[in-house]
Design a protein that fits this description.
Helix content: 55-70%
Radius of gyration: 14 Å
Order of helices and strands: HHHHH
Strand content: under 5%
Structural class: mainly alpha
């Protein structure tokens, strides 16, 4: 599925996703006091919003949820070939929740891995929306 022009709601989801993408990148490269937990959170949020943009484009309704695997399953029901993203989305979901609360903190390596998972998912999801991978 690739769309040439998007619905307004889908465009808004993409804009929000791109904000999360930029925030995750900024935090990972911050010289002073990088917030690696925030990298993981915003990487997950970026993918969530891209999945919601795709669902919006396909005319599918979806509940308020942050669960990437649930959103992926909804997308798969539309016929989209996105199963290859499952492992990365699972890791992003886990990291987003794990590091939001006291008791655990993301390391620089974990944050880099989260951003790489996000980069790969983002490129695929953007492609399905007819957008460039970058």
């Amino acid at each position: 599925m690739v769309w040439c022009s998007m619905k307004r709601a889908s465009e808004e989801w993409v804009a929000k996703a791109e904000g999360d993408w930029r925030t995750a990148q900024r935090e990972l490269s911050a010289i002073e006091a990088p917030n690696f937990d925030a990298v993981c959170f915003h990487a997950q949020q970026c993918c969530e919003k891209y999945l919601k943009a795709l669902l919006s484009e396909s005319g599918s309704s979806f509940p308020k949820t942050h669960n990437l695997l649930f959103l992926l399953d909804l997308m798969l029901s539309t016929g989209a070939d996105l199963e290859v993203l499952r492992d990365a989305l699972r890791r992003l979901d886990a990291g987003s929740v794990q590091f939001r609360y006291p008791g655990a903190a993301a390391s620089p390596e974990v944050a880099r891995d989260a951003l790489e998972d996000c980069r790969r998912c983002r490129a695929t999801l953007r492609g399905h929306l007819g957008l460039s991978a970058t």
